[in-house]
Amino acid sequence: MFDGAVAIVTGAASGIGRALSEELARRGASVVLTDIDAEVHDVAGGMPAAAGRTASAAILDVTDYDGVQRLVDGVAAEHGRLDFVFNNAGIGVAGELREHTIAAWNRIIDVNIRGVVHGVQAAYPLMLRQGFGHIVNTASMAGLTPGPMLASYSMTKHAVVGLSKALRVEAAAAGQRTRVVRMFERLRPMDARRFAGKVLDQVARNRAIIIVPGWWKILWWLERLAPTLNLVLVERLSASARRELYAPVDR
Questions:
Q1: From 250's CA, which of 29, 42, 150, 205 has a CA 20 to 30 Å away?
Q2: Is residue 62 within 8 Å of residue 84, measured between CB atoms?
Q3: Which of 167, 61, 78 minimizes the C-alpha distance to 114?
């Protein structure tokens, strides 16, 4: 599935985006790594590209729709196709809402929501025209269940989940082979390569919602089956996080 494919990954200079890019390259894809950080060029230069495939980099601000559209059009024109878009770029703002500024709100909405919207809007019509393609949106468990001290982040990730599920249904109704959209969460101690491999394995199986590692599904099931109980548990976690955050510092 990935051998010979063409993929764009946003937020690819580090973390999940870098791990996915490297695993895509190992599986034979030509990968375009994008990030607002110029370090993405160094990452692409060290990629394990397969014979006959390419790994290239581009500076991209996902909040700039025109820039995203130019990138998508350019990659499709150069390679003659676009198989995958991984809308992975995102930021987090932690803490209580009373401490948020409107600037922080605007920034997280711009990157986490508009950044994904821009990727979808640029790539989805093209994929419909060519008759195939996959859009993979990185969400979070905070987009499936409440996250303590992460209200703004949780709000944006719930939006990503909602968009992803609706888009998947719309793509199927259009009678196209286009397949959208997956959401996944990383447990930080997990080896990055192993994590990326598990995600791509489930992308290949066309799973609608990808949760890695799998035991996170327990929280999701609890949210669906007993939302009130789940809220109680999250409230307790929030109280614990708040006590730790505001604990007096010994001097």
A1: 150
A2: no
A3: 61
Does residue 32 lie within any of the structural domains? yes
Task: Examine the domain organization and report whether 208 and 230 are in the same domain.
Answer: no
Claim to verify: residue 202 and residue 113 sit in the same structural domain:
yes
Residue 153 bears catalytic tag: yes
Q: Which stretches of the chain are assigned E, i.e. beta strand?
A: 6-9, 30-35, 55-59, 84-87, 134-137, 179-180
**Tens digit of pLDDT for each residue in 220-245?**
777 777 877 767 777 776 666 666 65
Q: Are residues 129 and 238 in the same domain?
A: no
Query: Per the domain annotation, does 39 fall within a domain?
Result: yes
Count of domains in the chain? 2
Note whether residue 218 is domain-resident. no
- Residue pLDDT, tens place only, 56-83: 999 999 999 999 999 999 999 999 999 9
Estimate the share of the chain in helix, then strand, then coil, as percent rounded to the nearest 5: 55, 10, 35
Rounded CA-CA distance 209/217 in Å is 10
Confidence category of residue 249, pLDDT binned at 50, 70, 90: very low
Q: Are residues 207 and 228 in the same domain?
A: no
Cβ proximity of 42 and 17 under 8 Å = no
Q: How far apart are the first and last CA of the chain?
A: 58
Q: Which domain holds residue 239?
A: 224-250
Q: What is the pTM of this model?
A: 0.85
Using 50, 70 and 90 to split pLDDT, how confident is the model at 48? low
